[in-house]
Amino acid sequence: MSNYNKLTPAQFESIGKEFDAIRNRVLADLGERDANYIRTLVKRQRQLEVGGRIMLMIPPAWPLGVAALGASKIIDNMEIGHNVMHGQYDWMNDPALNSKNFDWDTADTAKNWKHTHNFEHHTYTNVLNKDHDIGYGLLRMSEQQKWEPRFLANVPLAVILHTFFQHFVAVQNLKLEDVLVYKTKTRAQLKEDFKPVWKKMRKQLAKDYVLFPVLAGPLAPLVFVGNVAANLARNVWACAVIFNGHFPEEVEQYPESVIENETRGQWYVRQLLGSANFSGGKLMHIMSGNLSFQIEHHLFPDLPAHRYQEISPEVKAICEKYGLPYNTGSFFRQTLSTWTRIVKLSLPSRRKPSTPVAVAAAAPAVVELPLAA
Amino acid sequence: MSQNTAASTLPRAAGLNAWLAGSLRRALGSRLAATLSFPHGVDRYLEQFDPSWSLHEVRAEVVGVRHLTTDSVTLSLKPNANWRGFVPGQYVRLTVEINGVRRTRCYSPANSAHARDGLIELTAKAHANGFVSRHLREQLRPGTVVTLSQAEGQFALPEWRPERVLLISGGSGITPVMSMLRTLCDEGHKGRITFLHYSNKATDLIYADELAQLAARHPNVQLLRAFAEPGQGGELEGLFSRAQLAQAVPDYAQAQTFLCGPPGMMKAVQAVFAAEALEARLHLEHFTAAPVVVDSAGAEGEVRFARSERLARNSGATLLDQAEAAGLKPESGCRMGICHACTCRKTAGKVRDTRTGQISDGEEDIQICVSVPVGTVTLEI
Hints:
Mean pLDDT of chain A: 90
Order of helices and strands of chain A: HHHHHHHHHHHHHH
Strand content of chain B: 25-35%
Number of helices of chain A: 14
CATH class of the largest domain in chain B: Alpha Beta
Largest sheet of chain B: 6 strands, antiparallel
Number of domains of chain B: 3
Largest sheet of chain A: none
Number of strands of chain A: 0
CATH superfamily of the largest domain in chain B: Nucleotide-binding domain of ferredoxin-NADP reductase (FNR) module
Strand order of the largest sheet of chain B: 4-3-6-1-2-5
Largest interface: A-B, 34 and 22 residues
CATH topology of the largest domain in chain B: Rossmann fold
Structural class of chain B: alpha/beta
Oligomer: heterodimer
Low-confidence stretches of chain B: 1-11, 288-293
Number of helices of chain B: 10
Shape of chain A: globular
Distance between the termini of chain B: 48 Å
Structural class of chain A: mainly alpha
Order of helices and strands of chain B: HHHHEEEEEHEEHEHEEHEHEEEHEEEE
Distance between the termini of chain A: 28 Å
Number of domains of chain A: 1
Strand content of chain A: under 5%
CATH architecture of the largest domain in chain B: 3-Layer(aba) Sandwich
Shape of chain B: globular
């Protein structure tokens, strides 16, 4: 039986109140500390980017250049872009850090991403057919997803998704599978939807693969390859972080019926059980945009992400109190668990899953998972 | 009587430096630079080097903080090259950051348009519950970089200076007319200028010393200080009235009159001019909005803040006040329907414009500082 089904309506209600209290307390405390934090990160990102682009044009410094530009893109996308576009810093009234205006250094348009991510993914987290992040229309990531022969390629497709992640995310809102596989969307519609995406993609491609290489003159190939490497590093890292947040094996997934008349408390619990953290040091948290605290992020998507670590002991305590798992483990363990799921689901399921998918066994108070061997 | 331009007020760099600065500016403003810095834009990189560097925004460094009266603060701001200057009477939107939150308020520069130092002088009176003005008075330090808008507003000294000028102000409404007076004096204006100012007592009068000096130095400038409290030593005593005006400035009907002050005083002056069909000669700035009439008794329904998932019972106050009461911090500025900083999307419901009483319905962009909900309203905040 799923952990979700073990709670009584009264428990849902009091969990909702406890999480609301955390949220309100942090909101009331927002101020200069948060502003300084995000501005410092923006400064570091810009330094890494400018420094990285210069080093790519100096052959002995090239490897450092790749590392710096890759790190810059990761910070831009994860700790700055993802979090700013969640509206975590809207309260600052700074147009440069406002979710309405911000755009990030990746192929996806801010507008499309805010729809698929902020709305679809965060509202309907792990609800099948509603949360497109379950497999991105490409993979089978849930037992409840009906098996089709194309999912035999789950593993190679997952590798391809990691490699070209920025472009898959860019076209996510187009729902390509509806055109190619299910024929529920026309090509004309697709063409129309693709216009703004192509506009953004084109600019990103021109910048990374034409203009900066050309600026380097005879070193153009070096700069070109450097940009490919930096983008690849960002793609693989971002995809891995996101997969670890929702696809480790114990994470629960839900049928559409769960969202009918869902209360605030139920919403919180679904977010909690539908997410997983991974452990690490300060650098790991920054480079993952604090999605290493995916649970806290899903409970409070619009609180500044650097606050998640501070509130995680309270979240953990609430889990313990209600006998709910707090899914965390090392990055390696969560990755292994995610890939186990990808491999398993490439084949048809043997049994019909219960509703919601029951995965976690009897309820240990807090699941502190051991490091994988 | 030439109109001043920003260029003449900014210090000119030597030839080579100017050429270099110009080329650099052109290079940074080019399409290539825009593509290379996509999607953040050149400004987002420039400001990392120096917070006052920007291709498009007006940023200014606070270079002086003075207190001319106990409850006011006078700031000297050094704007960057994007500042295009102002016409005396106009205002700017000043944005400062307080505990991580950017706040915007409107202030009229009080300096002469011909000031040689190129500085902008803003004076704010700190009200007891004036969050931003109190910050400006108590916290702002020289060296801070603030953001400004370009000068805005129709209340301005006409390009062809009128012969006879009457400047009427009250309280902190002195700033735009102070700019007019200083500018006219700098220009060697020959016509008569009457500066009629109302305040509670002598110690409340900002620019007291300079006004006295200007009046002493320029025989065509007549200074009339009116204090509400008795025994303050002003030329006049009490509040504005037609009788007082007629006695102190008998030829007021021949003058072009510029007016700025608290709502009650503005109303009184307007009524006098309207009664004598002199409205065309009266120029004014509603710098402090007439208090919004809040009918909390008749308020019903609720306000839904969709993006932040908050719900509040309609209190009858403006949507901006209600949003803030609900713990939200929507962008805002003048709080009187001028600057459009608070404009946001209303997806459903009816609102009443506090200025016109007009009711509008359905999905639209509204200025929440001057919109009161009529029944349930949903906002994209």
